[in-house]
Each structure stands twice: as structure tokens, then as C-alpha cells.
Amino acid sequence: MNTAERTRVLRRRMVVEARRATVEHGLTGFTIEQLCESVGVSRRTFFNHFASKEDVVLGIELNADVETLTAYAAGQVVPVSLDPLSSIVALAIEQVRIVGLNRADEVLVRKVFDREPALVARFLSATDVQLAKVAQAVRERFGWTVSDDPRARLVTESAAGLLRVTAEHYFDDDFDEATGPTFDALLTTNLRLMRAAITTGPTESASVHQENTP
């Protein structure tokens, strides 16, 4: 296991433990020191990865995607032949491949929000910040540097919508992970469906959906 993988494992341990503690005791029911003790890390190590207790519960890591977005902006990470929307989707798939998806984690997050509804606003705010970072990387990658050019934001928000719809489907309680498509396949299918929905007429929409549904 290399350094990057060890870091991901450590961060995941801190996040999962913080979420479990929040569900059981509430956000104010435990301290950062207690969390560090349960995970076996120092307070200094904690603040090397997370800015606050709220952030560790939400999985908002310090500088987690800086290197990836810098490389993406420079034309790396995903094929240079991809159009802007496809490149963001491919970037998301690459991140999912690295970080992984865990349905148990998603259930735990829902329990956290049920216990601490105020965290939803913090999560949405952090999502907006992350989308702005992705949009800036898109601007640099595709040379859309004019200040009032909306294209980077448009494709970034479109990709975010695709991810949200895909996640809602994949993490639905009735979704069978054993027999259903992978998250990557589902996301790719939804990308095709969105493109088809934009370009096809009303009489074609049903057949397009059938052709693109895995």
C-alpha cells in the first residue's frame, strides 16, 4: 500500500468513526480528541486532513482534489479527445474508482442528516465550492478564459445533475447491487440518455430510452 492509499484509508476511518459517533451521540456528544483517540491518531494529524468536526462527519477533506483537478486542467487524468461534459463524467468515474462506493456509507450519511439536519446546509455549501473548483478546472482545460463565458459552469452543473440522478438511483433502497448495473455503467447510460433527450423529438424519446437502458 503506497502513501496515497494509506492516507485514503486513514481519512476513511476518521470519517466513518465520526459519522457513527454523530448518529449515536449527536454532533455535540463527542469531541475531536475522543474521535482521535478512537481512531488512534493525534489531534495534529486530524487537522492535517480536516478543518473541523463538521467537515470530518461530512467527509470534506482538506485539499483532497487539488492534485487531481490541477492535472485535469492541464489535460491529464482523462483522454484529451473527450468533450467537456464527457470529460467531467470520466473524471467522476475515475474518482469513484479511486475512492470506491459503499452503500453502507450512504445509509450512514442519511442517518447523520436525520440526527443533525443543520449539516445539510453545510454539505450543500461545500458542494457549491467544489463545483466552482471543477468549473475553474474545466475553464483552464478547454481555454474558456473569458470572464463572462458561462460554458464551464453550464457543463459542470449538467454533470452534477447527472451524478445526482445516478446516485439517487444507485443508492435507492430497492436497487439490487448484485443484479443491477455498476455505478459507472449507470452514469454512462444517463449521459447518453441526457444527450438523446436534448437532441430527439417527442416521438423518439421512448425508443431512445429503451435503447439506452441497461
Structure description:
This protein has 214 residues and is an all-alpha fold. It has 2 domains: 1-63, Orthogonal Bundle (Arc Repressor Mutant, subunit A), CATH 1.10.10.60; 65-212, Tetracycline Repressor, domain 2 (Orthogonal Bundle). The chain is 70% helix and 0% strand. The chain contains 11 helices and no strands. It has helices at 3-25, 32-39, 43-49, 53-58, 66-73, 84-99, 103-115, 119-142, 151-170, 183-199, 205-212. Helix 1 crosses helix 2. The longest helix is centred in the middle third of the chain and has 24 residues, at 119-142. The protein is globular.
Q: Summed up, what is this model?
A:
The chain is mainly alpha-helical and 214 residues long. It has helices at 3-25, 32-39, 43-49, 53-58, 66-73, 84-99, 103-115, 119-142, 151-170, 183-199, 205-212.
What does the secondary structure layout of this molecule look like, with pairings?
Layout (H helix, E strand, L loop, with lengths): L2 H23 L6 H8 L3 H7 L3 H6 L7 H8 L10 H16 L3 H13 L3 H24 L8 H20 L12 H17 L5 H8 L2
Strand content: under 5%
What kind of sheet is the major sheet? none
Rg over CA atoms: 19 Å
CATH architecture of the largest domain: Orthogonal Bundle
Order of helices and strands: HHHHHHHHHHH
> Domains counted in the coordinates: how many?
2
The CATH topology of the largest domain turns out to be Tetracycline Repressor, domain 2
Q: Give the low-pLDDT segments.
A: none
Q: Assign an overall shape.
A: globular
By DSSP, the count of extended strands is: 0
